[in-house]
Structures are given as C-alpha cells and as structure tokens.
Amino acid sequence: MALALRALALSAGLSVLPTIALAQTASEATPAETPIVIGRSYTLPSAIMGATREINVWLPPGYADSGQTYPVLYVLDGGQDQDFHHISGLAQLGTVAGTTRDVIVVGIASVDRRNELALPTQDPDLIARYPTQGHSDRFRRFVAEEVQPFVETRFRTSGETALMGESLAGLFVVETFLKEPQMFDAYVAVSPSLWWDGGVLARQSGARLRDQSNDPRTLILTLGDEGPEMQAPMDVLTANLRDHALPGLSWSFTPRPTETHATIYHGAALDAFRRLYAVPAP
C-alpha cells in the first residue's frame, strides 16, 4: 500500500513539472517593456497663430545637474513625426562621441507648411494650388515673440542661437536671414526652395544684404543635384553674397551632387553641427 501511494505521488509530481516549466518559459519569453523617452513635447498657446502649437525640446544628458548654459538650435518642421528626432539624434551623437558641444534642440512643428514657411506669391498657379500660402511673416513673429521667449525663460540658454530647415523650411531660413538677420546667430538652409514665386527672394537678396549690419553671424547653404529650378536661384543668391561681402558674415555654399532632395538633409545637418558646435581645441 505504501509503495502504491509513493508511486501515485511521484506520478502527480511529474504531471505538474511540465506546467511549471511552461510557466517559466512563458515568463522568460516576455521581457519587461518600458517606453523610450526622447525629449519633451509642449503644447504652446499662441495668440499670433490663433491655436496651440507643438514645441519639442531635447536637452543634453546631464542638463539637470550641470548648472551650465547651452546654445539653442531651433529646427523648423520640428514635429515628432517630422524632423525633430533625426536632428536631436545628431545632437545626442555629438555629446556621446564628444565631437560637438552640447546643444539644446527645439523642434517647432509645422501644420500648414506653405502657409507658415512660404512668403506671399503673385503666381496665380501657386495661389490656386495653395490658397492658404504666404504667411511666413506671421510665423516668424510667432517664433520671435512666443517660441524664443518660452525657451529662454524655461531653459538655461547661453544666448547663442541657430535656425535650421530644409526645403520650404530652408526657404524660411533664407528669408529670415535676409529680413530679420538679428533673430539668430546662425542660419542653416538645406536645399531651400528658392524657386518659390519664380525665385523672387534670391533676386531681392542683393538689396536686402546692402541694408544689413556687420554683426557677426553665420549662413550655411547646401543643395543637392536637384535640377535648374533649384540651382538657378541659388546661383543668384550666392552671387549676391559674393558681391555684397559683409565683414561680419561667415557664409558658405556646399554643392552635394551625389544627394537628392530626399536624401540630403541628415548628412548636411551633421556637417552643420560639426561647424557650428565644434569642440574647442585643448
């Protein structure tokens, strides 16, 4: 009888083992899951734009404890589903590798790009295709009067600022540099859509440059292999920059013939980081 009971107990124990093993395997196969947080997103009420706007901010590692102040890079088309992550990733790479100075990245999200980033056009075809276009002056006021004060009062900034954008955002960068050069210390325009309104901004650049002061600032221009519609107004702009040399202005134009409009931005932005935020030599 005792022998039979021992056999029964052993049989019951063996029948439980597969269940325990299965539970352990299931537990081991389901790793813990936590969200990856890259920066912070703010909903900024804007009286100028008449709506709340998305502002995304990436802070350098160690910001909370450093007590230091930092330069600020403002990125147009800076929404979470736009260019914020790949530009803030360059800032993180520079910090981790020690190849560039720490910088705060502020992404300004776009909603209606031709409304916000393009100057007014007289072209009836463009007006018909984009009836809301042409309010870049209002968006510039939003950046100057609402976004920059928000950043400067909330974060430890050094006063060194830069504006970066690609395509229509690059057009906005060039327009801001020509019309309100004091807004930023540096301007980075990647494949700017200078073709807009028949290239009028490039043609006006000579007169705009004549009116500028000699305050120190930087302009970085670059363009891929994007055809004569993009290249011709860039040639006009760079010719005017050469003809109206300003002692305080450091500017460059880098052709990138191996890049297209779709591929140019990330590499060009990395080069701009290395120029604007180079680590000082020991």
Shape: globular
Mean of residue pLDDT? 91
State the helix count.
10
Biggest pleated-sheet summary: 8 strands, mixed
Strand order of the biggest β-sheet: 1-2-4-3-5-6-7-8
Can you tell me the CATH topology? Rossmann fold
Compute the number of structural domains.
Answer: 1
Query: What string gives the helices and strands in order?
Result: HEEHEHEHHHEHEHEHEH
- Gap between N and C termini: 88 Å
* CATH superfamily label: Alpha/Beta hydrolase fold, catalytic domain
Instruction: Specify the CATH architecture.
Output: 3-Layer(aba) Sandwich
Q: Tell me, what is the CATH class?
A: Alpha Beta
In percent, how helical is the residue content? 40-55%
Low-confidence stretches: none
Task: Find the structural class using helix and strand composition.
Answer: alpha/beta
Radius of gyration: 27 Å
Structure write-up:
- Keywords: Hydrolase, Signal.
- Residues 1-23 form the signal peptide.
- The protein is an alpha/beta fold.
- Helix 3 packs across helix 10 (265-276) and helix 7 packs parallel to helix 8 (196-210).
- The chain has one domain (40-276): 3-Layer(aba) Sandwich (Rossmann fold).
- The protein is globular.
- The chain has an eight-stranded mixed β-sheet, with helices on both faces.
- The chain has helices at 2-29, 63-66, 84-97, 113-117, 124-129, 136-154, 168-179, 196-210, 228-243, 265-276; strands at 40-46, 51-58, 70-76, 104-108, 157-166, 186-190, 217-224, 249-256.
SSE inventory with pairings:
Elements (H helix, E strand, L loop, with lengths): L1 H28 L10 E7 L4 E8 L4 H4 L3 E7 L7 H14 L6 E5 L4 H5 L6 H6 L6 H19 L2 E10 L1 H12 L6 E5 L5 H15 L6 E8 L3 H16 L5 E8 L8 H12 L6
Parallel strand pairs: 3-4, 3-5, 5-6, 6-7, 7-8
Antiparallel strand pairs: 1-2, 2-4
Helix pairs in contact: 3-10, 7-8, 8-9
